Amino acid sequence: MNRKIKAADVLFIGLAFFANYFGAGNLVFPPMLGLQAGSHWLSSIVALAISGVLLPILAIAIIGMAGGVTGITGHVSKNFHTVLVGAIMVFAMFISVPCTASVAIELGAQGVVPQTPYAPAVVLYFILVFFFARSKENVLDRIGKILTPLMAVILFVLVIRGFVAPIGTPVETTLESPFLNAFLGGYQTGDVLVSFLMASVFLGTITGKGYTEPKDRNRVTILAGVIAFCCLLVVYGGLLYMGACGSGDFPADIGNSELLVSVIKRGGGQFAMSALGVAVVLACMTTAVGQVSAIADFFSTLSGGRLPYRTMAVAASLVGMLIALMGLNKIIVISTPIFLATYPPCLVLMLLGIFRRVIPNDGGYKGAIALTVIYSICEAVLSFVPIGPMQALVSAMPLSGAGFGWIVPSVVGFAAGVLLYPRVDAGKAAQAQ
Q1: Residue range 11-52, pLDDT digits in tens
Q2: Are the C-beta atoms of 61 and 203 separated by less than 8 Å?
């Protein structure tokens, strides 16, 4: 029996989606894409909307329609979900979550009150993160009803003001392909990982509100995704346009954070800077709350409930706090290899999920993921250890320079898997007899 979908449920879940995809890192890069695009800012917004907004939202919709991440990874092997998502969770706990604290305090709190002491602010930050993440059932409600609306209002006011009263006029730049530059900029944020990271929390919240039938759950997921898409498009587009309006004034080598602060301050003075500081803190905190909840849920489920959700939420918060207090420079070097090793397989899984109803057998999944993982591991290794033959292999792949070198291995693996799997499967059946 189909349940009537409540508009309030869709709105708050959609806002929570928006908050979890929109981390503070995503606050600083659109103005730079706009600065580089100049007068071609509109095509850059379209490109960013495709790679930085549509791809992640599409990923969570596909995961939802498959019944969860395991609905796709199960075709590869029963343990692949644990390995892949486990790697993403480790990345989040040791890199992403501590980074949110660092950005929240250095760009947010200290941007408003320069005398803000770093260590006490970190401790307070993670106390609040745990407070909002302490209960799995209500975490998205807390994000969607408390944290996100305030952040969204501040950001919408800032970007609308940027459109109504631009700080300058976009000018022609020397960038050859603004569309491609913005597309790659959105792609390289890696927000599809957030879909795999947060899938259990997103879908669990939707189910917890009574939308247990697959059809109802999918409708809510898609509608919430539309809201998140619109919010992200408005904020990304507005920030990109603000950067484009400064293309005649700011140097090309200006830093991302410096550019963001400069365009906001020029557009609204100290009041706008204070509003930006609050938005940065809220953007970081919503991301941290969602990720701590996802980490706690994953490891609690993996342990069969022997590690309670709340205990793991405490542990994830403590780990994040300790790393943020020690300084991120000591461990940030491991973030790139983990990202390179996990992002392409997630993209391939998303594509496989789109066509899952027409894929003839599981060999397509196994072959595509096998070669993609091998290629991704090679890229991860090369990010910190130069190995000649491995470098030659990676460089030989078409589009490797743009971050799409995984495409050819995945296609070859898919084709080989589809062709070979029936024979392998038949061979196993014969041996069993």
Answers
A1: 888 888 888 888 766 888 899 999 999 999 999 999 999 999
A2: no
Helices and strands counted in the chain (H then E): 20, 0
DSSP letter for each residue of 328-358 = GGGTGGGHHHHHHHHHHHHHHHHHHHHTTTT
Residue at 409: amino acid letter: P
d(CA 76, CA 217): 25
Please choose, from the candidates 328, 63, 83, 6, the residue with its C-alpha nearest in 3D space to the C-alpha of residue 195. Answer: 63
List pLDDT tens digits, range 388-410.
888 998 999 998 888 899 999 99
What single letter denotes the amino acid at residue 9? Answer: D
Write the DSSP assignment of 68-86 as a string of letters.
STHHHHTTT-TTHHHHHHH
Q: Answer for the pair 202, 60: CB distance below 8 angstroms, yes or no.
A: yes
Count Cα atoms within 13 angstroms, Cβ side, for 171. Answer: 11
User: In sequence order, what are the residues at sequence separation of 6 or more whose Cβ sits closer than 8 angstroms to the Cβ of residue 432?
Assistant: none
| 151: its two tokens | 């952040």
**305, burial (CB in 10 Å: exposed 0-12, middle 13-18, buried 19+):** exposed
What is the model's pTM?
0.86
Tracing tokens 């309670």 back to the chain, one arrives at 308
What's the maximum distance between 2 C-alpha atoms anywhere in the chain?
78
What count of residues does the chain have?
433
Structural tokens at position 372:
């993609």
